[in-house]
Amino acid sequence: MVRVYDIPADKLIDGLAEHLKKVPELEPPQWAMFVKTGSHAERPPQRSDWWYTRAASVMRKVYVHGPVGLQELESAYGGSKALSYYPKHHRDAGGSIVRNVMKGLEQAELVAKQGNKGRVLTPKGVALMDKISKDIFKELVKEVPSLARYG
Fold first, then answer.
1. What is the number of alpha carbons within 13 Å of residue 143 lying toward its C-beta?
2. CA 66, 137, 143: angle at the middle one, nearest 5?
């Protein structure tokens, strides 16, 4: 059985983002096209569908590392910021983006809270991730037939 761990993360995130565009609970807010992803970023994201890509990436992180809290995700999506001639410092990502993505995933019943530990994927979310992983693996086998023995 093919799972999330068996395929490249970039292909999984792109495939999952395409599926999440059809989920009405994950509509990006109106301010999403103007906002930066954190204080470390110089400009807003250039891709128009970055919201769905971030949601797919959050789902993958919850699958692989879950249960995961908001603070851990803010730190993971943060980056370094240059401070004049001083050494660079880490800055967390914007919390509103992570919170709104998590709220949308919870409303779609793909992610659920697990007490005070953080959030985990629901059985519906796990099934979706495994189904998309399997579909992507089938496409990879068409490109590289020698991968068929791993599926």
1. 5
2. 145
H/E stretch holding 51 reads helix 50-65
| Number of separate domains in the chain | 1
Whether omega for the bond prior to residue 29 falls within 30 degrees of 0, making it cis, is no
Q: Is 42 helix (H, G, I), strand (E, B) or coil?
A: coil
pLDDT of residue 58: 94
Coil, helix or strand at residue 134: helix
List the CATH number of the domain containing 105: 1.10.10.10
Q: Which two tokens stand for residue 33?
A: 């096209």
Give mean pLDDT, residues 124-145.
Answer: 92
Instruction: Record the tokens describing residue 26, joined without a space.
Output: 């994950």
Predicted structure pTM score: 0.88
pLDDT of residue 10: 92
d(CA 147, CA 138): 9
Q: Which of 53, 65, 66, 54 is nearest to 15 (CA)?
A: 53
7 phi and psi angles, rounded to 5 deg: -125, 160
**DSSP state, residue 2:** -
103 lies in which domain range?
4-150
Residue 86 has what pLDDT?
A: 84
